[in-house]
Design brief:
mainly alpha
């Protein structure tokens, strides 16, 4: 059975980190460390936004619409996808996102809220 693309991408990423001297076998290792400093600290918000915007450019998203997209909106979409489409357990998603409270995780799931709160949803056709 072929390996899922996400697993292959993470393994490739870890190999790059190994080659750059990061001690990825250390349990305290950060998955996306600062490549600029070469230290085992999380990337800066600025670095994440730069990478995100570069991906939008490669995907040929109109630059005028960049304000509508952010790493945070991607995180919310990912959360909704895990909870609604994949059917992941709330506790697992909460842990993956690093939330202390499950209500915070549920707050990221905008998909469910939108439909039920819509006035149009209540209209019988």
């Amino acid at each position: 059975m072929p390996q899922p693309i996400a697993i292959a991408a993470i393994e490739e990423h870890l190999e790059i980190l190994r080659n750059r001297g990061f001690q990825i076998d250390n349990p305290e290792h950060v998955l996306f460390p600062s490549l600029k400093t070469g230290r085992n600290v999380p990337m800066s918000d600025e670095a994440i936004r730069y990478i995100f915007n570069a991906a939008l450019t490669r995907a040929e998203v109109d630059r005028d619409s960049f304000r509508r997209y952010s790493p945070h909106s991607g995180r919310a979409t990912f959360t909704g996808h895990l909870l609604d489409t994949v059917g992941a357990r709330l506790e697992d998603v909460q842990e993956a996102l690093g939330h202390k409270n499950s209500r915070t995780t549920q707050g990221y799931n905008k998909r469910k809220k939108t439909v039920e709160k819509s006035v149009v949803f209540k209209v019988g056709y």
